[in-house]
Amino acid sequence: MQNTLFIDEILREIFHWSAAHGGRDLPRAAQVCTAWRDPALDALYESLTSLKPLLDLLPKFENGNSHFVTVDQLRTFHSYARRVKYLSHSTITYPGLIPNTLLLSLGRNGADDLPIYILPRLQTAKVTLPTKTTCLIPPCLSLSPELRELHLDQGFTSRKVHHRTDDYLKQVALVAPHLESLTFRGLASTETNRYFADMRNLRVLRLRTAHTLNAETLASIATFPHLEILEIHAKEIRPADLAPLWESSPTGSLFEALQNLWIRCTPDLLEFITSKIESTELHTLYVDLETPHQTTSFWHTLFDNIRKFFSATLQDLSIMHLLDRDDAFNTDMHDINTIGMKDLRPLSHCHNIRRIDFGTTFPVNVCDADFTHLVKWWPELESLELSAEITNDCVPPTPRVTFEALRVISTSLPKLSYLALPVDTSGITEDAIASLDVVGQRVLRTLSIMFPHLPDTTLLPRYLYTLFPDLPEVEYSSEEWFADWIKVTSGVRGLQLKCDKVVCA
């Protein structure tokens, strides 16, 4: 055998690659020789999507009762358990019971040299807390002092698991003091909120808690000194709830390390929070807005706040604001608070933006002429989506954006790779194609025409090919003219193939 195949670093790289592609050969590789055994087993057990491979190492149990487990059997079990760094557990990945007798034999085995935590090198755990106590995974099987990332899914179907969540988070605080990332999904009790508020070492915190996050917890989270990524649902919290808490806080700095903020809230809370963020490195802002009145004007204030505090650093801006179905149908279109060019103007100072994604019920109110300004404001843009979420039951208004805007985009945004707009291409003519004097933007990979209408299957492919010669596909949102839009993509592809043959000749 070649000497290079005994070098530990090379073996581990090979076996890691094998594990990423299923790892079916790793058990056999572990039996080849002593030098291969540990690297192969480390790769095989490093990432587990179920507890089954570990529990299968122990004597079988029936009806919740395990056979006597000897110290030697436990030593073998722990020799494999110490290799696990990633664990995903739920009643789907492991529907069986974890009996108390087995847990007692693992935790109180009479051998002082065996580890206290069953997975002592565990770094990442994804745990779903079941509604049945018998299926509950105990902390000793899913926590370790080395744990850095925890995903905890309690779900929203029952409040009965609150006390189990609280017990689990209590153990997290005791066992994993160096935890850096927590993702929690489910309803949070008052006690659960307290545990969140005490996790001051976190760098990443995602709380998908619907309406159950309280103001006291959010006020405490703002003071976490290392927090870089934050996701919260805070639609029930008001500025008046937070202001006195921050005024009385002994810690002066708020959100001092924040780089990425994902928040579901009302416009007034967003305005208040953004004015308090002291980080000079925030580059990503994702906002899901909830408004009690769908005609309230707030866009200009929101964008002006972004200009004041984040214009130098912001690179990724996503805003969702979707009306309730009844509100969308019952509100006069003239009273709808849509995003207009005047509202967008404060963002003209955000020259470093790479991605913009606006998802609103009604389209952003811009026209072809506005794009001559937008492309100058955001010259580094790589992704632009201005989508409208009108349902099939409602006839969408004809957009003021036409194929002419695509010409401006093609010549002015050289880095753009994704574009989704409600565009009306129905007025395209031979003269429009003949007047094109462009080199062609070759970076765009996705063009989504988000306005259902009948395309010209002859002229539109020629127009798009001239602007975006390497465009792979044209996406569309039109069931009625599905076949026609397929022809548009086929037409663009046909022109590309024709060009390829000319080049090869």
Pick out its properties.
505 residues; alpha/beta; single chain; globular; 35% helix; two-stranded antiparallel sheet
Give a written overview of the molecule.
- By secondary structure, the protein is α/β, with parallel strands linked by helices.
- It has helices at 8-20, 26-29, 34-45, 52-55, 71-81, 100-107, 162-175, 190-197, 215-221, 239-247, 267-276, 299-310, 325-330, 341-344, 368-377, 403-412, 430-434, 459-467, 482-504, and strands spanning 47-48, 61-62, 65-66, 86-89, 124-128, 149-155, 181-186, 204-208, 229-233, 260-265, 284-289, 316-321, 355-360, 383-388, 418-421, 446-449, 474-476.
- Strands 1-4-5-6-7-8-9-10-11-12-13-14-15-16-17 form a 15-stranded parallel sheet. A two-stranded antiparallel ribbon has the order 2-3.
- The longest helix has 23 residues, at 482-504.
- The radius of gyration is 28 Å and the shape is globular.
- The two termini are 50 Å apart.
Secondary-structure blueprint:
Layout: H1 8-20, H2 26-29, H3 34-45, E1 47-48, H4 52-55, E2 61-62, E3 65-66, H5 71-81, E4 86-89, H6 100-107, E5 124-128, E6 149-155, H7 162-175, E7 181-186, H8 190-197, E8 204-208, H9 215-221, E9 229-233, H10 239-247, E10 260-265, H11 267-276, E11 284-289, H12 299-310, E12 316-321, H13 325-330, H14 341-344, E13 355-360, H15 368-377, E14 383-388, H16 403-412, E15 418-421, H17 430-434, E16 446-449, H18 459-467, E17 474-476, H19 482-504
